Amino acid sequence: MLVSVVVPCYCEELSLPLFYKEMAAVADKIHGTGFEFIFIDDGSHDKTLEGIKTIAEKDRRVRYISFSRNFGKEAAVYAGLESSKGDFTAVIDADLQDPPGLLAEMIDILSQGEFDCVATRRVSRSGEPPIRSLFARCFYRIINRLSKTEIVDGARDFRIMTRKMVNAVLQMKEVNRFSKGLFSWVGFKTHWLSFENIQRVAGETKWSFWKLLIYSIEGIVGFSTAPLAVASVAGVLFCVISLVAIIALAIRQIIWPYSQYGWTSTICVVFLVSGIQLFCIGILGQYLAKTYMEIKKRPIYIVKESSDEKKEENT
Ligand code: UDP
Ligand code: MG
To answer: Which residues, in sequence order, are CB contacts of 18 under 8 Å at separation 6+?
Structure first.
């Protein structure tokens, strides 16, 4: 049996050697299972690729793909899944925030054949800025209200899947990849393991608050069309309100003819309604933008070099 381990790496020169050491130690302890490690260098501008090459020279199980620029973690994971050959394929971060030690148990559960996927979630967010945790919680609440696809709070991308599930994920070739949603959307039976939040070993997170916010909008737009209904709901609501207002004004005109007041309230209503209109156009714009990007059918990533072509050159 072969297990592929996909590791997206973006500027991980510091954590990479530590990760490899721990990962290799874990793999050596799991008997009767072959491993291949696929490192994806996501256009790093530090010495990550050199680090991966050094490891690949020593360890024949290691393969790598290097992108022509930074395409984002989602693209890196896609490339890794695409090139994986294992019966089971795992995805794991390079910063040791996903404990490789869990892999033994995950492989064990998957081997029993009941589940197609073993995924992990962190049960705490210790060490994270409180404001970020707050926004994260709100995001999960909103997206799960809006979308039929269940997005588990605290779910990590650290998971192991059977070949069937990997192939299903690979069938989704969209450019805007919100993988927490994609993994859930394909279905299959998933077993969840929990662990406490772990700080990254070295280097810094690549996710700023702003990037996370944009990513969360991507998730909502990618997995729900409910926001598009906001315009219709607001429209109906305002029709009803204005109908009531017209009737009230007509009655007032009959009882107290030629009474005149209400400039301020008129302006307030104009501002409110035009604000809602702009907001709805904004939502439309989001969907239009995503459709525009998808329709171009650009590749999800572009490879600059990989260990496979190196092997071909040598033979
Ligand atoms: N990563 C990547 N491309 C990117 C950003 C991140 O391949 O554009 C990788 C990164 O090297 C790490 C994983 O994705 O292995 C998770 O990134 P990070 O630790 O920065 O995210 P966090 O754990 O803070 O959510
Ligand atoms: Mg991390």
So the answer is: 96, 201, 202
